[in-house]
Each structure stands twice: as C-alpha cells, then as structure tokens.
Amino acid sequence: MPERYDHFINGQSVAPLEGEYFESTNPATLETLYSAARGTAADVDAAVQAAGQAFHDPRWRDLSPTKRGHLLRRLGDLVGEHAEELARMESQDNGKLLREMRGQLTTLPEYLYYYAGLADKVQGSQIPTSSVQMLNYTQREALGVVGAITPWNSPLTLTTSKLSPALAAGNTLVIKPSEYTSRTVLRLAELATEAGFPDGVINVVTGYGTEAGAPLVDHPGIAKISFTGSTATGSAIAASAASRFIGCTLELGGKSPNIVFEDADVSNAAMGVIAGIFAAAGQTCIAGSRVFAHRSIYEELLEKVAERARSIVIGDPMLETTELGPLAFAAQQEKVNSYVELGVSEGATVLTGGGRPDVELPGYFYAPTVLTGVNNCMRVTREEIFGPVAAIMPFDSEEEVLGLANDTDYGLAAGVWTQNLARAHRMARRLEAGTVWVNTYRAMSPMSPRQGFKNSGVGIEHGLESMNEYTRLKSVWINT
Ligand code: NAD
Description:
Blueprint: E1 3-5, E2 7-9, E3 12-14, E4 21-25, E5 32-37, H1 41-56, H2 58-61, H3 65-81, H4 83-94, H5 98-118, E6 126-127, E7 134-142, E8 145-149, H6 155-168, E9 172-176, H7 183-195, E10 202-204, H8 209-218, E11 224-228, H9 231-243, E12 247-251, E13 257-260, H10 266-278, E14 290-294, H11 295-311, H12 330-345, E15 349-352, E16 369-372, H13 379-382, E17 389-395, H14 398-406, E18 410-411, E19 413-417, H15 421-430, E20 435-438, E21 450-451, E22 453-454, E23 457-458, E24 460-461, H16 466-469, E25 471-479
Parallel strand pairs: 1-5, 8-9, 8-11, 9-10, 11-12, 13-14, 13-19, 14-17, 16-17, 19-20
Antiparallel strand pairs: 2-3, 4-5, 6-7, 7-25, 12-23, 15-16, 18-22, 21-24
Helix pairs in contact: 1-8, 3-5, 3-7, 4-5, 5-6, 10-11
This protein binds nicotinamide-adenine-dinucleotide.
C-alpha cells in the first residue's frame, strides 16, 4: 500500500472531510508513490478558520518580530538538517535531478535566514505634515490569512519564497500545493511546527486546482493570494481577487529571449543557452526558450548547442551522472510533443531531439530539442511550451533583436551574451523583462527582487520589496 498523506491543519494531520484521496506517481518510473487528501471547499474552510484563529491568537499576534525571526531561522536549520530527505522527495515527485535538488536544498535555508533577518526591520516613518500640532506616523502591519498556491516545478523553493516573507511580517497561511507535488510542502509545514511555529500559523490543504485552489481564492477569510503558476490560472485568480478587493502577487509564465551577439564568447553563450532551456527539462518559468543568435555566429552557435544537446545524458534523475530527467507527468509530455509537431507543421525543422529518447525507464522522458527555420510569429515561439524545446533564430542588428525580444506577451526574464559593456547596459535598459542576465542565465537569490512584466506577473517576490506584498500601511494621526 502506498503511503497516505492527509491535510495539515492546525498543527495536525487531518483527513479530508469527504474522505477522498488521489494518487501521485513517480514520473521517471511510473510507480505510485503515495496518495494525498483530495481537498474540497469544506477542508479549505477548516484550514482558513484555523489560520484566522491563529492570526488573532496572542501566541502569534503578540510574538515580537525578533522572535518570529528566531522561528524562521530555526526552520532554516531544520530544512538544512533534512536536506537529503527533502531533495529525494521532490526529485521523486516531479522528476527533477537529485543533484540539482541537492544544490537547491543547500540554498533553501538562505531564504528562511534572509527573511528571519527582515522580520524586525519592517518599519514605518514619521511624516512632517502641514500642521506642527499633529504627529503623523505610519506603521506596516500584517494582512491576516494569506492563501498561497504553488506549482509542481519547484514546490519547495516557490513555497518558501511565499511562506518566509508572509511569516516574517506576522501573517498566517493556508497553502495549496500542486496536485503533482503534495508531500514536500506537507513536510515543510511539519518542520515548521517542529521549529516552534504555533498551531494554525501554517496550514496545507492538498488537492486539485478547481476543487481546493479555487475555494481558497474565493474564501472570504483570505486577505491576500500569493500565486505562482500559469498565466491562464493567474488571470482567473486575479479576477476573483479583484471582485473582493484583495491583493494578489502573481508569478506567472514566460517565453524568455536569450540573445547571443556577434561579440560574445560563443562557447560560453552556447552553455548558457543549454542551461537556460534544458535545465529541469525546460520546466522552468524562466526557460530561455527563444534563442536569438547574430547571423555571423548563428551557424557556430547552432552547431555547439546541437552537439551538446545530443550528448546530454538522459535517464534516472536519482543518478549523479544523469543530466536530464523526465517531464513531470503524462500531459506535460503530450503537450511538449504536440508543440514540436505544431512547429513542424508551421515550417520548423527539428535539428535535434523531438520525441521520446531511448531510455530504459518507462517515464515521461523527452529529448532535448532544437528547432530551426522558425520565426517570432509562430505559436512555438509565442506560447509557453514548458519543456526542453529551444527555437533558435538569426538576427542582423541590435535594434532588430530588441524588437523581436520584446515582441511577446510575456516579460519574465531575458539573457544577453556580449562583451560590449555599453551594449549590455543598453540592452538591460530596453528589454521589457523583470530580470535581465548578462553573460549568465538563471542566477537567482532570495535577496534579489523579481517581478514579471506584462503577462508574466503582478507584484514582487524576493528582496526587501517583497515585504510590502505581505503588509499594509497604516497612517496614525495624533493631535498633540
Ligand atoms: P497551474 O496554473 O496549472 O497550477 C498552479 C497551481 O494552481 C496548482 O497548485 C493548481 O492546482 C492551482 N490551480 C489550478 N487551477 C486553479 C484555479 N482555478 N484556482 C486556484 N488554483 C488553481 O500551473 P502549473 O502547471 O502547476 O505550473 C506551471 C506554470 O507555472 C508555468 O506557466 C510556469 O511558467 C509557471 N511558473 C512561474 C514561476 C514564476 O516565478 N513566474 C515559477 C514557476 C512556475
């Protein structure tokens, strides 16, 4: 019998009120890993009630910000102590390479430590108004119960990115993890209890988006939604939040350009292109899926990228030698394949990859794929594929490539490869993307704020500015 996981509400495992569970499968081996509670509106209601009571409970409400920081620091320590267990769990759940997860787990505590340090630095100011008689000051206060909804591609990091600032500011949380990756988030909540967070401060309801996610968004007890996921779901969530005038932070999809100029170190750029699109089998929001190469180095870059793509070791994500694991579930594999077929029907050429590679394991593997003969108007270059598929296009001038790079509905990230400093600054200024990398790709830190432009998001995650997403400003007037 596979293991069975319940919701985590008010510091305890709680069975789903309707008694239903759903199964989670290892995408590499297709073995059933465990079953998790299939949450409904009733479970969500119980979790929001618990979080609401915990928000007003003096054990949390009156805890000093410094002590909230201590709890986050302790949680960071526990995450570090359980790094191997968490890395293995996430790797089995979504097929990410174990060695990549081990790397992520070494930095994950830093997220908690960073916000631990910010907990007692949330402050207001004294305002000089037109009347000297009046003392006017501002203070930042917690919002209440935050609903956090996260995707499957990086559940631990993405949940921690929401949980840490929300708790540092004094909120409580109900988290709805992706139905494909329930257990790491449940484990994180258990560790939070072990760290000393009072019962009810962190609650997790597992289940499907329409059955558990939507009721969380619509629940009147929620003061804010923090969501990471697809642009389509984000749009529905934003509409619901707007109807109740609650705020939302939305981290959504991308179709990021990775631009290689003629003056770049082409070998380095090729490695950057590879890492940008094939890391995590392309299942990252920041995937550099549109590659623009200056015509004079186009062939050279293409050759280097294709050669490396062909040599990528595909297979069991638990092995140290593996470089590319499976896609996370069957529908992902079908979606990626149908985009490649669509590209071909639109006139693209599959330079390498396309289809399932020859791998012994029965999972949802997809070969690293390079498409040529594409332009920026095709669906494969306009829509997020969320798989290991790079579309490589030539360009002739800086002005032309800026136009092409910005000609997208998304604005999450962009990469630039050049040795010309002035050009690097010019591109950074003019690219319509929340993150621009120059001569690197995928660099990230809890200290560095990130924001999706255009359809890639609303609000800021990470960095000092993210604390404003989880607090509201009060202005106090005192007649002296
Ligand atoms: P998704 O939108 O399908 O699901 C995300 C979460 O929302 C899941 O927990 C799901 O159960 C829930 N959900 C689905 N429908 C819902 C509804 N109607 N109401 C409330 N909740 C609902 O996204 P996904 O497939 O899990 O994740 C992949 C997407 O996430 C990609 O588009 C990717 O670019 C994006 N992403 C963005 C970032 C970022 O930081 N910008 C990071 C990672 C992933």
